[in-house]
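Structural prep section.
Before we set up the soaks we want a predicted structure of the protein with zinc ion in place, mainly to decide which crystallisation condition to try first. Input record follows.
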Amino acid sequence: MNMPTEPAVLMQAEGQTSSVASDPTLRDRLIEAGILIDTGENGLYGRSEVFEDVVDRLNKVITLLGADQSAEVLRFPPAMRRHDFEDSEYLKSFPDLAGTIHAFQGNDRGHHRLLEALDKTLAVGDQERSDEWMDQQKPTRLVLTPAACYPVYPLIARRGKLAEEGAIVDVFAYCFRHEPSIDPGRMQMFRMREYIRVGSPAQVMAFRQKWIERGSALVRLLQLPFEIDLANDPFFGRGGKIVADSQREQQLKFELLVPVATPNKLTACLSFNYHMEHFGEIWNIQQTDDSLAHTACVGFGMERTTLALFRHHGLDVTKWPEAVRTFLWGDAAPMIADALARTGTNA
Ligand SMILES: [Zn+2]
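Run finished without errors. Recording the tokens verbatim:
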């Protein structure tokens, strides 16, 4: 199989992120300013009007950036069918990150036991709370969505064979990953906007290359320092390193990295993923010639990109650079048209 090589050309072209520091005080400053709201649980935040306004505006410029794709817009709740999740092989790679949904499904006796266990737990201090009451909880048929694109592949498969031009889908959802952290760039619940391409290897590769360029154009318009780099997913366990190495070797994943809050480390704000026929095979998504469809997705980390904007332009959005304000609060369309003309990826 032909492996992608084009992105390597881009990697050397980008700005000097190493000279721009990430800011480990960002979380505290955002909470103090009331922009993020501390819930008492690491990685779970409330969002203020100011924060949400930036997320909304970012979402809008991403829509403009992808307007020529005529993507099918689909919105899913932050949960997916457990059966589809089981099929997805997510648990093979990331068992530690998954979140399942449980609910009480018992009778009166079970309810009694639940309340007894709950009383016991409430009687002890905050620190020693036990989860004994959860013995009464049983799995539901839903799990939390681990990545915004996951509900899309089984859906496309259920529709039957792809058309000649394949499919492009636009999704936006809260996602869950069980990785409590005080790094605001590592939330347990966060939003991902994604464009997903399903089709032939050539269609899918062209899509990913286009979005590496467009994603870079977006972040340039946001005036954030960044790098594009080869990456791997955090595969679990002893076998995980081998899978991660192979993912790198085949250049399946690239990330757009910005210094945000992690000390001495850049944060992936956008990712460009080529899954080859992985999802096509699991759900038997077929191209017109009966061969398995390939898939790719570009993911925009909405919270991470928003955090990056606060990190680099300050907590007062009225003082952000004029061009960034025009881009987000003014008329972004001509700026995007201009940027697309320059990347040569306009339609
Ligand atoms: Zn995806």
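Observations: The chain has two domains: 7-99+146-343, 103-141.
Flagged for discussion at group meeting.
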